[in-house]
Amino acid sequence: MHSKLLDELNENGYIVIEDFLTPEEVDSLFQAGRALCLEAPQTNRKIFSTIKAEDAQGKELYFMESGDKVRYFFEKGAVGEEGQLLVDPMIALNKVGHALHVEHPVFNAITFSNRVREICWQLNYNRPAVCQSMYIYKNPGVGGEVTPHQDSWFLHTDPNSAVGFWLALEDCTLQNGCLQFIKGSHKSGVHRRYLRNPDKEATELMVYDRAAPIYPQSSFTPMQVSKGTCILIHGNVVHKSEPNRSQKSRHAYTFHVIETENNVKYSEDNWLQAPKDKPFPVLFERKD
């Protein structure tokens, strides 16, 4: 089957679909995200940062075991050395993941909507499954940068099949850290991998297999989009977001779809592994 959607994704590495969500859906997801702030644990607060390796979640089973749970990751500047909150709880979280699409009814309804299934159908998936989901806060002042990466570093399949659905729940601007892409960069393969450490004696449970590539700042195209927009993200396209330097948050809900047929193999050394009794939930199975 041939589709314009697939052509555009293969050409650019991303697609912007405006008004993917209704205003009511945006509000419903946004309110659910705010409610999660108040449900976050008061003790044992975990920080999520993509910059400093020594604080990396890779040392923490809390992160690695979050694939089938709803877990809370705080901004680096939001938690003191004793685990105390230094900021208002409503702006303390970096993200919540990674099973909102299964465990939370509001996020489940959007993730498994006919709109999402239709897009996966047009992208030629045969048996697409949702492997993970996140609510990302990108709060004013504390919302840190997300360094340039390809999603395939983390959600590797052979051949590559991951596509991200990134749903803007607030307007995204240069000031509050909108997504930025290197157009066409998905055509250059997977640049590095984030792997379960083969050295079982090591303290680090997760390791990168090589150094971070350097991507020139001038290569990135910022995607300033209004709330309700969906950005489809090819697993191999390089993207990032700058820190939120504004007075406004930049909430988003995102999830990833992978192919589970056609001899596509989900890598056994990815950080995220489905429990044996809970395989990744499938959106549909295409029948010939």
TrEMBL record:
**Record key words, sorted:** Dioxygenase, Iron, Metal-binding, Oxidoreductase
Task: Note the Gene3D superfamilies from the entry.
Answer: q2cbj1_9rhob like domain
The record's annotation in Pfam families points to: PhyH
Q: Which cofactor does it need?
A: Fe cation
GO molecular function annotations of the record? dioxygenase activity; metal ion binding
Going by the entry's taxonomy, the superkingdom of the source organism is recorded as: Eukaryota
* Family the UniProt entry places it in: Belongs to the PhyH family. PHYHD1 subfamily.
User: What is the recorded name of this protein?
Assistant: Phytanoyl-CoA dioxygenase domain-containing protein 1
